[in-house]
Amino acid sequence: MSCYDEEAPAPALIQQPQQQQHYLDCNILTYPYTPPYSCRNNPYTGRAISETATAQPNQIMPSSQTPLLARHDTSSLRSSNSSTSLSSLAQNHKSSSKQREIQRYVAFSSAIISCLCAGSITTYSLYGHLFQERLRYTQVQVNIVIIAAEMALYLPVSLLGYLCDRIGPAPLSLMSSVLFGIGYLLAAFTYRSGAKDVMGYTQERGWPLWVMVVAFVIIGLGTTCMYLSAVTTCAKNFGKGKYRGLALACPIAAFGLSGVWQSQLGSRVLYERRLDGKRGDVDVFKYFVFLAVALVAVGLLGTFLLKIVDEDELIDEAVDELERSGLLEDSEFFRRTAERNYGSIEDSCDDDATEARRILDAKAIEDEEARKKTWLLNEETRMFLKDRTMWYFAAGFFFVSGPGETFLTNLGTIIGTLYPPPSGTTAIPTSAATHVSIVAITSTVARIIFGTLTDVFAPASVGQHYGSISNSLSSLPTTPRRFTISRVAFLVLTGLLLSLGQVVLASGAVQNHAERFWLVSSLIGIGYGAIFSLTPLIITVVWGVENFGTNWGIVAMFPAFGATVWGLVYSHVYQWAAKHRPYSEEREEDILCYGKSCYAGSFWAMAVSVWIGCALWVWAWKGRGGWSKRGIAV
């Protein structure tokens, strides 16, 4: 026996159409929708949508928020309560929107704090030369330590990005806290076990090299976790906004800025005192202990504050966009969802049964949302890997980023080659800490400036999937047509600036003129900082933000290989020049090198490498099957 009046006909469920239709969001409809539109659930997103239909006036169509059955007196009830319901909905929506905005900016602030501390490994040049002088490491061994850290920094990014996309940024922030604490404490005690003090004394046996390597591998993993959790949070929370370039540039710039305050703190506060009472080099043990404590605290803070706001909406919009682009036609998810029965009508007055069914329906919806998210991210990963332009783009990143990484990690030893040994280190009118700060400041400024310039001058990209109709339409001329500069043009420009710094160094213009070295540091800092800001930005424009952690992680693996190749090239050229030095005095057991021959050949080759990378970027943009040919407004 039905609980409802017999004369009230039960409306039939709307069947899934066999052809694609364009849908309008009608989740907010709580009253009958008059022709020519009606409401039903989008089979891909589960959201209520509208489509052309022939529904009768005052007939309730099934959706995620409207009942499946209607009574004959429904219209009279709605007319009496419609104003109250709409007012309540508007108030709740406003309150909910304000709360989400607060969460979004709290997460942004936490991401900035994380990035301001996460770049501690960029200060390696501050103490790398002390591994030579105090631990008696060779130049090759010094590079082995940092290369191992860079491999751990870049190679796992795709895996960690995959996890970040699926479980969120908070667990990665917690993981970074643990890894930083273990890594820096292990490095601190490894250094203390074998380092000479200012008096020249040392313990008989220090811990072996592999212990320091393990410590820096752990530090590299911690850096990746903290950096990726912060940047992914900003990319997803602001990736749809007008100023997404600036929103993404800020945490990346903060990452570069972390090297400034940490290197200055180490050289001006946590330093050793020489025998004459003057300030000496950084006290490596105290510096490592400080970093361990600080980064543990920042990682724990991010665990509670880093959140993705409205992630379900991002997933729904991405699925809708893929549907409009026609890329879902042959997918298993498309077929399974189209065949799914979205509800049934049972004649029952049992409140307990109704509540049980409601709970089951809620659980089913939750499971469907999780399955939808997993399917979408896996589908976007597959599309990303099949895109040939991605491989051209990533290869260019390999050729450009490797030389930049090598300069940063060997900055201290490069400065040490500018003057011959008789002059002594005190005669060099500059220091590694100064140029670590110069690189950090210039890279930070470049990231913010180029991120802002792309927001102002780059063409607008409406859609974010390379197959979307909206993205293609966004590349068509508008009236009036504003002046635009492609993001790829900015990227190539910064690559050329980086190569210019390498050419100046390789030419020998700064040899015996350390006061000119700021020019090299500034040019390389600008180029290096900007490419690490523009590269992830272009990824969000071409391939979207929903799978950003995975996509950026795949591309970010390539600098590890570049840094390894060029780090080994530089260290072997350095070692060869140390053994064939022209001066007669034999010091430091052929460990230290002095003169232009220590670095010139390496940096000429690095400049050529950067030019090759820029050519690959242009090919991905303008070449056969490139973004420009597809109509992607990049």
Automatic annotation (TrEMBL):
The UniProt record lists the keyword Transmembrane: yes
Gene Ontology terms, MF aspect? transmembrane transporter activity
How is it placed in the membrane, per its record? Multi-pass membrane protein
A GO CC term assigned to this protein in UniProt: fungal-type vacuole membrane
Q: Mind listing the UniProt keywords for this protein, alphabetically?
A: Membrane, Transmembrane, Transmembrane helix, Transport, Vacuole
Subcellular location field: Vacuole membrane
Q: Where is the composition biased (Low complexity)?
A: 76-89
Major localization listed first in the record, in broad terms: membrane
Q: What are the start and end residues of every segment in region (Disordered)?
A: 71-95
Keyword Membrane set for record:
yes
Q: Where are the transmembrane segments?
A: 105-127, 142-163, 170-189, 209-231, 243-264, 284-306, 391-415, 485-505, 517-545, 551-577, 598-620
Gene3D superfamilies the UniProt entry points to: MFS general substrate transporter like domains (1.20.1250.20)
**InterPro entries linked to this entry:** MFS (IPR011701), MFS_trans_sf (IPR036259)
Family assignment from sequence similarity:
Belongs to the major facilitator superfamily.
Task: Identify this protein by name.
Answer: Probable transporter MCH1
Which species does the entry assign this protein to?
Venustampulla echinocandica
Q: What is the lineage of its organism?
A: Eukaryota, Fungi, Dikarya, Ascomycota, Pezizomycotina
